[in-house]
TrEMBL record:
Coiled-coil residues: none
Pfam families: MFS_1
Keywords: Membrane, Transmembrane, Transmembrane helix
Record domain Major facilitator superfamily (MFS) profile: where: 11-379
Keyword Transmembrane on entry: yes
Transmembrane segments: 12-33, 45-69, 76-94, 137-157, 163-182, 208-231, 243-265, 298-317, 329-350, 356-376
Record protein name field: MFS transporter
SUPFAM superfamilies, alphabetized: MFS general substrate transporter
Length: 385
């Protein structure tokens, strides 16, 4: 079935609204980490297991969602995962034992990435080669959700309510999403509709490996900053309420940067956009390390640096590799590994090496991403000869 223009716009809008919810879900863990640690009676080193659990769920969900989206109706798959997501969010405040909370985080990771990978794949099928600006807009919505959720938490706490209400409000929003999603037909793979490509991209295992490495490094870097910047600020002497706003500043410029990237990806090559982002990322992490700039300004700059990396890299992968649910599943599997490995090390590093280890870790991650971009560019040029 070929989607009409109006139908394509409607389903795209639905994915945008869903990505706000996914951004809110992902953004909840960082600012609520001290509350969750207090609820379970855990230290910072122990509570870091939540990042591992969610990332393991992400890894399983990446593989599972790729298979399901390729075989079944995409919107029904997304609806099932949204139901699981809402149930997990509602259960978090009742999971007062660390082992139970860890299990719930695993399920949340599975549901989040399934909606994330599924919506990305369906958006690619909807817009084909014209998808890069739409991908940037989709991930702007993700950043918008990340930016809004710390504000929701601050408002809930200042009104005298428990932090649990932040989870319950997001769960309610997720449930409401089911109505527009199930009312619309799901996009179909390109080979079942009008052809979007004259010829598929060449298969290149090394190219895929470099892409997967870069996606894993980026997500590890983003989750580490968003998940631990509040704790880093508190350990550095900031008041908890002020430290919680650091995440909002990060997501504020990340969202704004993705909005700006929508016209940029039409005018500049993805290589130029990625070089600019990584250059700013290296500057901001070095500034954090040597304390050139105040922490709120570093959060703003780093958010801007990180803003266009994922959507631009994802759009570039669609140009250089065959886009289907399985490939997207591999990408989000790499994201899950990165989101598990790097943030899970950060808690023990902060406890054993002190706060100075946090900015050094970020500098190393940005440096590895720059190396990955150089290798990818060299591989593409070699294949074109």
């Amino acid at each position: 079935m070929t989607l009409t223009l109006d139908h394509g716009r409607r389903v795209t809008l639905t994915y945008f609204i869903a990505f706000i919810a996914i951004g809110m879900c992902v953004g909840l863990l960082g600012p609520t980490l001290p509350h969750l640690a207090g609820m379970t009676g855990s230290g910072m080193g122990q509570i870091a297991i939540l990042f591992t659990a969610r990332a393991l769920g992400t890894m399983l969900g990446s593989v599972l969602s790729g298979v399901l989206i390729d075989r079944f109706d995409g919107h029904r798959v997304l609806a099932a995962m949204l139901l699981l997501l809402a149930a997990g969010l509602a259960a978090v405040p009742f999971s007062q034992a660390l082992v139970l909370l860890t299990a719930v985080m695993f399920l949340l990771g599975l549901a989040e990435v399934s909606v994330n990978a599924g919506a990305n794949t369906l958006l690619l099928w909807t817009h084909g080669p014209a998808s890069p600006p739409w991908i940037s807009a989709l991930h702007f919505c993700f950043g918008l959700g990340n930016m809004l959720i710390p504000l929701v938490l601050v408002v809930v706490l200042r009104l005298g309510f428990s932090f649990a209400w932040a989870f319950w409000l997001v769960a309610l929003y997720v449930i409401v999403l089911l109505v527009p999603l199930l009312r619309q037909a799901s996009p179909r793979p390109p080979d079942l509709t009008v052809g979007h490509r004259t010829a598929p991209p060449p298969r290149d295992g090394w190219r895929l490996a470099i892409f997967l490495l870069m996606f894993g490094l980026y997500v590890g870097m983003e989750v580490t900053f968003a998940g631990w910047i509040t704790a880093y600020g508190v350990l550095g002497g900031m008041a908890p309420a002020d430290a919680a706003l650091l995440v909002t500043l990060f997501w504020l410029t990340l969202s704004a940067g993705r909005l700006v990237a929508i016209p940029l990806v039409r005018r500049l090559s993805p290589w130029m956009v990625l070089r600019g982002c990584l250059g700013l990322g290296l500057f901001s992490t070095l500034a954090l390390h040597v304390q050139w700039l105040p922490l709120p300004l570093v959060a703003l700059l780093f958010g801007l640096a990180a803003s266009a990396i994922f959507p631009t890299l994802f759009g570039l992968s669609n140009q250089l590799m065959l886009a289907n649910g399985r490939t997207t599943g591999w990408i989000f599997l790499a994201c899950g590994i990165g989101g598990m490995a790097v943030p899970s090390l950060t808690g023990p590093l902060l406890e054993r090496a002190g706060t100075a280890a946090f900015p050094l870790l970020l500098v190393v991650l940005v440096g590895l991403l720059i190396l990955g971009l150089v290798l990818l560019r060299a591989r593409v040029r070699l294949a074109s000869r």
